[in-house]
Each structure stands twice: as structure tokens, then as C-alpha cells.
Amino acid sequence: MNASSVTDTGPVARPWLLPGWRDRAVAVVDAQLALAGLRRTGPVEDVKRWSLSVVLRCPTSGGAVFYKQSLPSLAHEGRVLSLLAARRPGLVPSVVAPDAPPNDGWCTREVHLRSGSELPHDARGRALAVLGGVQRAWLGRTAELAATGCWVRTARALADMVPAAGRSDLFGPASGLPGALSAQEQRRLSDACARLPELCAALAAAPPGETLVHGDLHPGNWGVARASGRIVLLDWAEAAIGHPFLDAVAALRSCPEPGARARALDRYFASWSALMSPAQCRAVWRLAEPIAVFNQIVTYMHFLDAAEPDERPGWAPRLLWWARQLPRTVDDAVRG
What pLDDT, in 10s, does the model give residues 147-185? Predict the structure, then answer.
């Protein structure tokens, strides 16, 4: 499955905007709590409500619980969380009712964390290494991942998406977006995209193979559990099947220090030492980096397409930031 904006438009895609949604959501929460032998002990509170999802929180007889409902193309997150929690408890917040229909939303138990955004830059290497261990465990098991409805972001699938990046309505002066690419920048983007299929073909043949990709491992999406000290990985809404190295770009985007970035990558590569040497990892990373950047472009193109007109300017900076990175990373990969 690939993200499709068709499924994410219209009022049915965002039921939280419809009258009576909150009462229905509270009823879903109560039903899922009952399946787990829990009950609510206080009012339901709003935590976040935006274009992609809504999050509620409520106290229960077994501790606080969060409820989340997302756009249809992101609803696989609940199934992915259930799958991961069953295989490796403590890695992700546990799902209260794993068998509940994910399109109705899902409840997870609260985990008290120190957010990755509060930690030193070098902590990103630890989070990446934990993710690397998870990714190793899912090599060769992509059928199970596909059954959750994960996006498909394999190198071959991404190669098929390259033509969409030529859209002037999303990138160039004709888009009307704040900070749009100049005509020269759009030409550079087009030139870079023309070289992507060859790089995708090379990555498809590169080790270690296809596995689980988190998709958005920025520091706000992981943390350290205060009780156990373990890394907990959050927000699997963009979970996909693809090359594992796709995850490194989002993890390192906001890390300004080159030394910290290099150390984080080294620690991530060390998590693959049973399968690949450091030199192999670095060679594959040079190849994977532009494709990982393109993967981010594809994601933000999808979100921009699904956005209401008044939401589009808010998504533009993220899409255009990645679009400006692609020519440089393609040049680096081609130079080797």
C-alpha cells in the first residue's frame, strides 16, 4: 500500500470535525477499556487536534490512557503498535485493545518519558541503535508488516513515485506556497529526480534488505522511560516497508553539529555489525541518503495533497526544506 490522498479527503476522513464525534469517541474509549478490564475514572481531555489526527487522554483504573484517531492512510499505526508491543514489550506504548478496529481509533497506556528533544544530540545514536535492532528482527518478515497496512516505501516503489516530484503546483513559483522553490531551484530538483531511479535500483540490491521503517524518528518521537531507562519509540503513523537506512535522515535533521551526526550514524551502523561492516554501512548510506530525503518529500507531498486550503501553507516549509536537500544529496551519492 502507498499513501493515497484520495482516502484522506472529505469529512469522513476526519470524523473528529463532525458533530457528535467526541461523544462517539468517548464511547469507543469506554468499549476498549472494558475489553482490557479497565474503566474510566475521570473526564476525557483533549491533548491534540490537527489535520492528521486527534489525541485524547483519560484517567482509568489502570493508569492514564491515550486515545488516537488518524486519517485513514495513517490508521495502520494502531496495528503496527500492537504487532511491535507483542514482540518486544516496552519498545512502544502498549495498546489497550489490540483487536479493536483501528479506523475507530486505538488506546495506548501512558508512558512517562524524558523526550528525545530534551536530551543531548548524541542520544540520537542510542535511539537509532535501538531502532536498528528492531529493524534487524523484521528483515525477511515484510509479509507480516504488509498485513498491518504499512506504507510501501521500498526502493522500487519510490522509483515509481519520482515523476510526481515534478509538480509545479507543489514546488515551484506556480504553487503559491510561501518560500516556494525558484525556477532555478525547481530545475535542480528535476535534474536530481531524473537521477533517482538509477540510485533506487542500486539501493534495491544493497544490503541488508527490506524491513520496518519508522518514517519520522525525529527527537519528539522517541524518549527515555523514566521508570526503566529504556528507549521508547513513539508515533508510528508513517511506518513503512523499505530500506532501514531511510530512517536516518529524519533522526538527524535537527542535529546541527557534524560531529554528533557522525557519532549517531556510527552507533546506528554498529547495530548492523552482525550483517555489515562499517565500511559497507557508509557506502550504502551514501546511496540511501538521497532516497531517504525523497521518501520525506513523498510523505509531505501526501500531507499537502490531503490538507485543506488553509492548512497548505503550514505544510509547505517541511516539504520545501526536503526538496532543497535532494539535489545536494544526489550529487554526493553520484560522486560516491
Answer: 999 999 999 999 999 998 888 788 888 888 899 999 999
User: In angstroms, what CA-CA distances link 124 with 243, 274, 287, 318?
Assistant: 19, 21, 21, 21
Residue type, 38: L
Give the confidence band of 12 by pLDDT, cuts at 50, 70, 90: confident
Is the distance from CB of 206 to CB of 284 less than 8 angstroms? yes
Give the count of alpha carbons within 13 A of 324, CB side only: 12
Between CA 88 and CA 140 the distance in angstroms is 17
For residue 154, the tally of other CB atoms under 10 A from its CB is 20
Total-model pTM:
0.95
Q: What is the pLDDT of residues 59-98, one digit of tens each?
A: 999 999 999 999 999 999 999 999 999 999 999 999 999 9
- The strand pair at 240-242 and 151-153 is best described as parallel
Residue whose grid cell is 516556494:
180
Judge if the upstream peptide bond of residue 178 is cis by omega within 30 degrees of 0: no
Give Cα separations from 57 to 29, 46, 63, 193, 251 (angstroms): 10, 6, 11, 43, 27
